Automatic annotation (TrEMBL):
Lineage summary: Bacteria, Pseudomonadati, Pseudomonadota, Gammaproteobacteria, Oceanospirillales
Protein task: Reutilizes the intact tripeptide L-alanyl-gamma-D-glutamyl-meso-diaminopimelate by linking it to UDP-N-acetylmuramate.
Protein name: UDP-N-acetylmuramate--L-alanyl-gamma-D-glutamyl-meso-2,6-diaminoheptandioate ligase
Domain of life assignment: Bacteria
Gene that encodes it: mpl
Annotated Mur ligase central domain residues: 108-291
A molecular-function term among this protein's GO annotations: ligase activity
Entry cofactors: Mg(2+)
Pathway: Cell wall biogenesis; peptidoglycan recycling
InterPro entries per record: Mpl, Mur-like_cat_sf, Mur_ligase_C, Mur_ligase_C_dom_sf, Mur_ligase_cen, Mur_ligase_N, MurCDEF_pg_biosynth
EC id: 6.3.2.45
Recorded catalytic activity of this chain's protein: UDP-N-acetyl-alpha-D-muramate + L-alanyl-gamma-D-glutamyl-meso-2,6-diaminopimelate + ATP = UDP-N-acetyl-alpha-D-muramoyl-L-alanyl-gamma-D-glutamyl-meso-2,6-diaminopimelate + ADP + phosphate + H(+)
Species of origin: Kistimonas scapharcae
A Pfam family it matches: Mur_ligase_C
UniProt keyword terms in alphabetical order: ATP-binding, Cell cycle, Cell division, Cell shape, Cell wall biogenesis/degradation, Ligase, Magnesium, Nucleotide-binding, Peptidoglycan synthesis
Annotated binding of ATP, by residue: G110, T111, H112, G113, K114, T115, T116
């Protein structure tokens, strides 16, 4: 069977490609923007990539085309598939039909933390000898791959609320039918497809409706937006977590690098790791509760997470040059930006310099939906550089004027790199935040720092 994937370099579709190949399917694909880590991962696995959407890519004709949710009518490849009558489906539907059937699906949903929490859960199950399958929207360092089939019934999947395809506007996660579901948090996002918070809550309730009565929902007790979802109707057991709940993560170190897991007032174990931030404590707690649902004791889960190596592009330390540390982070929402910077600040102390460099790249960012909330999210930084690309559609001037820390905006990536290099000193922390390639800024910065160091 030959499957061709349109939009193959997206985190979800690239992972799906790996799973299909593992099933023995011949996989090819195309994308408009090809950049690491997904492009590298696919090439390493021997999956042929075509750049662009020319109809010539369908020679030889595939048996099935999987169409990514970034594809729309008018795309040359989409139009060719429709005109020629080539069988097609969506990525989530392909997952449901070919990967998830007869599996114990463990889904991780929420506005923030899906990738990291999914990776944590997979690492816990692996440490417990359960060899899970997984599909994660990033590349966990512990596995080196974003997806695999696994050898047991358990399958961990990052459950995205974004729409399925141009021909199916339901959220991806309604296709997965999990038995164990983590609902990490819920805020307004994806303004390009959801008109308001209520529209997202409706999709989350569609997910809740698919969870069996003997399944489990794991959620924070104090998330009003998720509580409203549950109030629409719930037929499954719920494990609440957080303050005044049966399950709690109790900090031992202020920066979140050491904490205890408590259940009904009894300590179950401790996690001591290299990661920071209360948000990661929360993610860990959710993963530990989910693992317990399939029989992994919390003490063993804590042991697994103490060695957790993290996920590429989630506060990943990509270089240290002359004492200057460069991080790559995927944050593209005010809450994610704030929690990431706060976690780093708690780790490095009040005197260290944290330089944040942020690209407003997500569709919601580009639409200006978070305008008025972005500046406050950077309070834990020492200085912020905002990338203001051509065609952003709104001005960053208000964010600069209300910034709690010194802030600048620039539309020239090379000039941003030059300024960062000239001002950076040993002991500084440079945090690059973008959910895309950022015009190659990461590597340009590393190259320039290395050049300065060797001069």
């Amino acid at each position: 069977m030959h499957v061709h994937i349109l939009g193959i370099c997206g985190t979800f579709m690239g992972s799906l490609a790996l799973l299909a190949r593992e099933l023995g399917i011949h996989v090819t694909g195309s994308d408009q923007n090809v950049y690491p880590p997904m492009s590298t991962q696919l090439e390493e696995q021997g999956i042929a990539l075509v750049e662009g959407y020319s109809p010539e890519q369908f020679n030889p004709r595939p048996d099935l085309v999987v169409i990514g949710n970034a594809m729309s009518r008018g795309n040359p490849a989409v139009e060719f598939v429709l005109n020629e009558g080539i069988p097609y489906t969506s990525g989530p539907r392909f997952m449901a039909d070919h990967i998830l059937r007869d599996r114990w699906v463990m889904a991780v949903a929420g506005t923030h933390g899906k990738t990291t929490t999914s990776a944590m859960l997979a690492v816990i199950l692996e440490h417990a000898g359960m060899s899970p399958g997984f599909l994660i929207g990033g590349v966990p360092a512990d596995f080196g791959l974003s997806a695999r089939m696994g050898t047991t019934p358990f399958f961990v999947i990052e459950a995205d609320e974004y729409d399925t395809a141009f021909f199916d506007k339901r959220s991806k996660f309604v296709h997965y039918r999990p038995r164990t579901a983590i609902l990490n948090n819920l805020e307004f996002d994806h303004a390009d497809i959801f008109e308001n918070l209520g529209a997202i809550q409706k999709q989350f309730h569609h997910l809740v409706r698919t969870i069996p009565g003997n399944g489990l929902i794991i959620k924070p007790a104090d998330d009003a937006n998720l509580n409203a979802v549950i109030d629409m109707g719930c037929w499954s057991d719920i494990s609440n977590m957080g303050p005044d709940s049966d399950w709690q993560a109790i900090p031992i170190a202020d920066d979140g690098s050491h904490f205890a897991i408590s259940h009904c007032g009894t300590t179950q174990g401790e996690v001591c790791w290299s990661h920071t931030g209360r948000h990661n404590m929360h993610n860990a707690l959710a993963a530990i509760i989910a693992a317990r649902h399939v029989g992994v004791q919390p003490a063993l889960a804590c042991e697994a997470l103490s060695g957790f190596r993290g996920v590429k592009r989630r506060m990943e330390l990509v270089a240290e040059i002359n004492g200057i540390r460069v991080y790559d982070d995927f944050a593209h929402h005010p809450t994610a930006i704030a929690t990431t910077l706060e976690g780093l600040r708690a780790r490095v102390g009040s005197d260290a310099t944290i330089q944040a460099v942020i690209e407003p790249r997500s569709n919601t960012m580009k639409m200006g939906i978070h305008k008025g909330h972005l500046a406050a999210a950077t309070a834990a930084a020492s200085h912020v550089t905002w990338y203001e690309p051509e065609g952003l559609g709104w001005s960053l001037s208000d964010e600069l004027s209300h910034s709690p820390v010194p802030a600048t905006a620039d539309h020239d990536i090379d000039r941003i790199v030059s300024t960062l290099v000239s001002e950076a000193r040993s002991g500084d922390h440079l945090v690059i935040m973008s959910n895309g390639g950022f015009g190659g800024l990461h590597q340009k910065l590393i190259n320039a720092l290395n050049q300065k160091a060797s001069a």
